[in-house]
Structures are given as C-alpha cells and as structure tokens.
Amino acid sequence: MSVALCTTSHSPLIGLHDPPDDVKAEVDRALTEARGFVEDFAPDLVVIFAPDHYNGFLYEVMPSFCIGAAATSVGDYGLPTGDLSVDAETARLLAKRVLDSGVDVAVSEAMRVDHGFVQPLSFLFGSLTSVPVVPVFVNCVAEPLGPAVRSRLLGSAIGTALRDLGRRVLVVGSGGLSHDPPVPRLAEAPPEVAERLTHGRSPTPEQRRVRESRTVAAAGEFARGAGGFRPLNPAWDAEVLAALAAGDFAAIDGRPNAWFTEQGGHSAHEVRTWIAAYAALAASGPYTVRSSYYRAIPEWFAGFATTTALPVEAA
Ligand SMILES: O=C(O)/C=C/c1cccc(O)c1O
Ligand SMILES: [Fe+2]
C-alpha cells in the first residue's frame, strides 16, 4: 500500500466573508497545489479526520472519536448536502483494528457531518462522492476533551491498519490552527443554547440562517479588531507546524489541553485532526513535507494552513 497526506484548515466563512483579493488568490494557489498533489497521488481511498460543530455530534452522546460506516452532509453554510461515498467495509475494519489497539472509538452507521468534513472533500475532489472515503470524527470542541495524545494514538492505530490494505490511501486532517470563533461552550451556555447543543440536531432553515449570519457578523468584527475575540497566534501555529513536519510528536504529546486553548484559542484543538493524520502517515515510516502554506486570515477566523506530505521513500 502507499499513503500520502494532505492537511488543511477549513472555515465556513470562505466565500461568505473573504479577505482581500491578493490573499484569496494566494490561498487559491496553495489549495490548487494541494489538489494537484492529490491528483498525482490518485488515491483509491481517503481517510479523513475532521471535527464537528454541533451539527452531527451533540451532547446527547458525545464520543471522543467516531468512525462512520455511512455518512451524510447536513449542508451547513450553503455547502453540498447528501451522502458521502463511504467504504463501509473498510470503515468497520478500521474501527475493529483501532479498538484492538486499545483506543476506544465509537462507530456510526448513520454519521452526520458538517463543513469540517465537507469543505476539504469539496476542495480536493470537487464532490462528496468522487473517491471512497472513511470519515473519522475527532471531538475538538465539546468539553471535556481527552488529552491530545489520544488523537495521535488513534491516527497511529489507523495508519498501522492501513498498511495491510494494499491500497493508495490519502489521509486528510481538517481544521484550523490557532482560532477562536464563536462556537458555543456548554459550561457558559444559557439554557436555550445548552438545549441546542444537546438536542438541536435538526435546526429549521431559519435557525440555521440566524446562527450562520451571526458567525459572519462576528468575523467582520474580528477582522476589524473589535469584538474582544482571542487573537490568532502565528508564532504558535509555526511551532505546531514545525513539530508535525519534523515528526516530533513528543513536542506535542505531553502538552495539557490548556496549552492549546491558551496559545491558540478554543478551536485550536482542531489541530488534533492534523496530529491524527500525521500519526497515520508516520505509521508507514519517516515522511517528508512536500508543501506547507500558512497565513493568519482574520476574515476567516483562522490561522489558515495547508500541507502535503509523503513517506520519504516515495518523495
Ligand atoms: O460556526 C461554526 O460552527 C464554526 C465556524 C468556524 C469558523 C472559523 C473556523 C472554523 O474552523 C470554524 O469551524
Ligand atoms: Fe472548525
């Protein structure tokens, strides 16, 4: 089997609240390069690690990790709705192998996914059904969170299992580096928001519109330096990118959750998806980063990065 990696930030504000044209063009070039890398690799399976933002996973039951044997997009922020082309047999096999390794992963036969999964799949493949996929949910927002090292163990177990498949597998990690957009938190939520975080899996179109327009308005404030949001942290982002590029998981493994939150903001825990993806790649041996793009983009509420990587012997 062969393996390749692409990690990318997502932001539902892309296309809804864009940065100046020169920045947008720079990101487009980076994503086009990543897409070219993926086309050249021509995967026959994609394993995507991504978070959810209270669209598919709510406090009714909030697993730390979940592998989907079937998945459908809820179509938040105007993104495509519909089923992903999930490779159910491989999803169930990977779940078994992860459980055998001692990492407790949930399984879903009806996973609902949001922009965290849908945006990278749409960027890289143009649709949700171009390539067989195994979606792997990583809880990055709903506290309490387990330690980040568990994401590495999850990725490592999946990468080890992938070695036996004899397939061309692209592992994808989806999520921002430093960022703290207004995703609600249960501990400080008023009752109606707590109710939504627990049971609100089917908002009306109007409820969805209100929620999404609030995020766009907040991004406008953030980009103007208003609103009291936590700033992006390019220095921390560089530190994390350098550790992952060097395969230096030890630099991250021992970090407490407070390190991610204090340095990068509450949503910086989305970097767990990158840790899992890089750990999955590392299971096939030493790797080398082929491309790495970064820019802090307040209009998208994101320390925005995209990287690609290959095993050393394939590079
Ligand atoms: O509104 C949400 O659910 C999330 C918004 C968001 C904004 C910016 C970067 C991200 O990673 C997000 O999920
Ligand atoms: Fe996100």
Automatic annotation (TrEMBL):
<keyword id="KW-0223">Dioxygenase</keyword>
<comment type="function">
    <text>Catalyzes the non-heme iron(II)-dependent oxidative cleavage of 2,3-dihydroxyphenylpropionic acid and 2,3-dihydroxicinnamic acid into 2-hydroxy-6-ketononadienedioate and 2-hydroxy-6-ketononatrienedioate, respectively.</text>
</comment>
<dbReference type="InterPro" id="IPR023789">
    <property type="entry name" value="DHPP/DHXA_dioxygenase"/>
</dbReference>
<comment type="similarity">
    <text>Belongs to the LigB/MhpB extradiol dioxygenase family.</text>
</comment>
<feature type="region of interest" description="Disordered">
    <location>
        <begin position="180"/>
        <end position="212"/>
    </location>
</feature>
<dbReference type="Pfam" id="PF02900">
    <property type="entry name" value="LigB"/>
</dbReference>
<protein>
    <recommendedName>
        <fullName>2,3-dihydroxyphenylpropionate/2,3-dihydroxicinnamic acid 1,2-dioxygenase</fullName>
        <ecNumber>1.13.11.16</ecNumber>
    </recommendedName>
</protein>
<feature type="active site" description="Proton acceptor">
    <location>
        <position position="179"/>
    </location>
</feature>
<dbReference type="InterPro" id="IPR004183">
    <property type="entry name" value="Xdiol_dOase_suB"/>
</dbReference>
<feature type="domain" description="Extradiol ring-cleavage dioxygenase class III enzyme subunit B">
    <location>
        <begin position="6"/>
        <end position="304"/>
    </location>
</feature>
<comment type="pathway">
    <text>Aromatic compound metabolism; 3-phenylpropanoate degradation.</text>
</comment>
<keyword id="KW-0058">Aromatic hydrocarbons catabolism</keyword>
<keyword id="KW-0408">Iron</keyword>
<comment type="subunit">
    <text>Homotetramer.</text>
</comment>
<keyword id="KW-0560">Oxidoreductase</keyword>
<feature type="active site" description="Proton donor">
    <location>
        <position position="115"/>
    </location>
</feature>
